[in-house]
Amino acid sequence: MNTNVKLLGMTVMLSMTFAACSNDELVERNHHDAPISFTTRVTTRATVTNLGNLKAFRVYADAVGYDNMFINGDVAKKKDGTDNQYILKSKEGEDLFWPSDVQTINFWAYGPAGNDNPNDDINITPEITALSQQFGDYAPKADLREGGKEHKDLVVAYTNISRTDPNLGGMNVPLKFNHALSQIAVRVKCGVNRKLYIKGAWLMNVHGSGQLSFDKTTDSEGNPQYKNFMRWDYEHKSKANYGVYFSGTTPPAVYQQNIDLIAVQSKENIENNQSSSSLMLVPQKAAALDFKTNNNGAYILLLCRIEAVHEGAEHTEGEEISSIAEGPGTTHTHQLFPYSESKDATEYGYTCVAITPNWEPGVIYSYNLEFCGQHSGGGIYPPEGVRDIIGLEDIPNELKIVNRPSEKNPGDLVLDNPIGFKVEVAEWTPADKDQDTPMN
């Protein structure tokens, strides 16, 4: 039980994008041919937006010779009876064609957007012109009960293509969507002979909103400065908290196997249109909680209870050990955290571990926490005022939250150091004189 909860090697998985290949195309034709339509193929299975739930998206286009945007937020909707074809209509309901006198067009798109039910849309207000492309401010809903249940997976696309481009192929314009947000998950496991109960898990003090812009700036070596040209600005945005609370009197116990607290959206959830606590948050860099220099830094907060599990039946102080009946598989427990002189299974306490977000768009970050492992303990006491944070102040009354002991401070270990021994070995002491013992 050393310094704190062990934050195991953070699992980072690339979230696959809408692949741009021969079947992933924005089809644009001149007015002697078919109207504009879209065909896409999705290979992603790790995040929320896929062909099964992408019903519509908005398109912007800049063409040489047009004073205004050639296409300005018009909607491409999925064609009935197809898996991957989308039809683009103007706001007046007319077909749109590639102008015969235009050689090159820039296309931008984002989704989900333009759905018949506005609740299915991503909530942003883009301002896109030929000179500047801003997708607007985006703030994932801050919910401390149901995690990312209402979070949506924002996807964006850009391409610049000419009629003479060899990849055009019959006026089929490749269009590649990229995931603009970061997906965050939290998992936990516990060490041998320990039992962990968790009622809530939250990401605290992370940037809650940001402005997404298209930016083709390059570095000194000519490489794009921003991944897929997506620049997120959030420095002056307010901080926010996200997470889940588990209802029920007794949550499932955590042992040596990893348990999902804030889960990655699974392929099955996506295909079955099921909700998930997976968090879709603004990509960002943020400083970690540091009680000396940054009391407003990022950390993972947990409301939990830690027990030690021992073999044999429980006995009272002073009782003869030999009188305790022990059967196969008999165990008993002792409460390690929260610190309390009572024995009450409804007692819980707050602990935390600092994190340093460095999240990129389209990447899944899974924080794997280990309690009471070979090199880990139970975390540290969180900053003052946690119980008064909006969303945490109304934790059900039947749950007894034990305050931090008066002799402990924020940042102190919630578990004391493990039992150890300081050993001395006495020197051999000779007798005053040798004992003569005759052999009779």
Summarize the structure in words:
The protein has one helix at 267-271; strands spanning 6-7, 11-14, 25-27, 37-39, 56-63, 71-78, 85-89, 104-111, 127-128, 133-138, 155-162, 172-174, 177-179, 182-190, 194-207, 210-214, 230-233, 239-245, 253-254, 259-262, 279-281, 299-311, 331-337, 347-354, 363-371, 400-401. By secondary structure, the protein is mostly beta strands. The chain folds into 2 domains: 1-16 and 181-314 and 329-416, no CATH class; 18-112 and 153-180. The strands form 4 sheets. It has a 9-stranded antiparallel sheet, with no helix packed on it. Strands 15, 18, 19, 22, 23, 24 and 26 form a 7-stranded mixed sheet that branches. Strands 1, 2, 14, 20, 21 and 25 form a 6-stranded mixed sheet that branches. A hairpin with a 6-residue loop joins β6 (71-78) and β7. The protein is elongated and about 125 Å long. Keywords: Signal. This is Fimbrillin family protein. Pfam families: Mfa_like_1.
Q: How are the SSEs ordered, and which strands pair?
A:
Layout: E1 6-7, E2 11-14, E3 25-27, E4 37-39, E5 56-63, E6 71-78, E7 85-89, E8 104-111, E9 127-128, E10 133-138, E11 155-162, E12 172-174, E13 177-179, E14 182-190, E15 194-207, E16 210-214, E17 230-233, E18 239-245, E19 253-254, E20 259-262, H1 267-271, E21 279-281, E22 299-311, E23 331-337, E24 347-354, E25 363-371, E26 400-401
Parallel strand pairs: 14-25, 24-26
Antiparallel strand pairs: 1-25, 2-25, 3-4, 3-12, 4-7, 5-6, 5-8, 6-7, 8-11, 9-10, 10-16, 11-13, 14-20, 14-21, 15-18, 15-19, 15-22, 16-17, 22-23, 22-24
